[in-house]
Design a protein that fits this description.
two-stranded antiparallel sheet, MetI-like_sf, mainly alpha, 316 residues, Multiple-sugar transport system permease YteP, single chain, MetI-like fold, transmembrane, MetI-like, transport
Length: 316
């Protein structure tokens, strides 16, 4: 028997055992898995019954199973609404900025942190860029108001001191999207580097040593060793990110939108709130939310298929 066959033989014997016996053997691992499993069942799978509202004329007093079934009427209404194209344009614009600027920036930041040789300085800097992640969007937007408002805002006061006119950052359609992306970067770019830094730590140091002996510069090391070493992680995280491509989050957009920038700031998330919570159109808002989820699923499946075609692992 070869060494490979000798190594595989115990695995084959293990698979022949009954399922319950194998589960009992690994009972402690399954026990540790229970809290996470319970979380997903209670908060992710059970609420999926609410999807039925998207196909009903939902009445709270009748409940989900007692309300009238209307099929795709709410979807037809949504796609025919004049607001649909405005919402789609605004959402896609911010989503593309998020994917095209924020996501690559987390990779660049991780690469820069990885190049720091002083451990004390590196960990201090990591702490500084991680801290904003733990602030709520209410605090982040509040800081933005303090800095940018025309009535005593630090930046506008500085502009006035230098002889320039004050800028209506918070009321301007032009500045709305840059502010949204800058807030995302400041709050979450540092936190987004964690997985990339872990992947960078897993690259074999002997590869760098061999390349240095051959005279490779830092840029060559980055291009030929570092980036290929974390390529699979980048692909997987990008695929997962596409699942929430048009799910921009509610809090930040809602807090930044006002009457003067609503034309570029209204997105699917805020629209669901207005029609669902404020106007009580539960079934219609559920249809809009389901549309977002279906688009995310299609993007994940398509990106995973493309990644496998290009030779990457994908997420399944």
């Amino acid at each position: 028997m070869s060494e490979t066959e000798a190594a595989v033989a115990p695995l084959r014997l293990e698979k022949k055992k009954p399922l319950w016996l194998r589960m009992w053997k690994e009972r402690w691992l399954y026990l540790f898995m229970l809290p996470g499993l319970a979380y997903f069942i209670i908060y992710k799978y059970v609420p999926m019954w609410g999807v039925l509202m998207a196909f009903q004329k939902y009445q709270p007093h009748l409940g989900i199973f007692g309300s009238e079934w209307v099929g795709f009427r709410h979807f037809e209404r949504f796609f025919s609404e004049p607001e649909f194209w405005t919402l789609l344009r605004n959402t896609l614009y911010i989503a593309l900025l998020d994917t095209g600027i924020f996501f690559p920036l987390t990779i660049v930041l991780a690469l820069m942190l990885n190049e720091i040789r002083s451990e004390l300085f590196k960990r201090s800097l990591q702490t500084l860029v991680y801290v904003p992640h733990f602030l709520s969007w209410v605090v982040v937007v509040g800081i933005s108001y303090i800095l940018l408002t025309t009535e005593g805002g630090i930046i506008n006061e500085l502009l006035a001191l230098l002889g320039f006119e004050k800028v209506q950052f918070l009321m301007s359609e032009f500045w709305f999207r840059p502010l949204i992306i800058l807030q995302m970067i400041w709050k979450d770019a540092g936190w987004g580097t964690i997985i990339f830094l872990a992947a960078l730590a897993g690259i074999n140091p002997s590869l760098y040593e061999a390349a240095r002996i051959d005279g490779a510069s830092r840029w060559r090391l980055l291009w030929h060793i570092t980036l290929p070493g974390i390529r699979s992680v980048i692909v997987i995280l990008l695929i997962l990110r596409l699942g929430s491509f048009i799910d921009l989050g509610f809090e930040q957009i809602f807090l930044m939108v006002n009457a003067l920038n609503r034309g570029v700031g209204e997105v699917f998330d805020t629209y669901v709130y207005y029609v669902g919570m404020q106007q009580g159109q539960f079934s219609y808002s559920a249809a809009v939310g389901l549309f977002k989820s279906v688009v995310g699923l299609i993007l994940v499946l398509g990106a995973n298929w493309l990644a496998k075609k290009l030779g990457e692992e994908g997420i399944y």
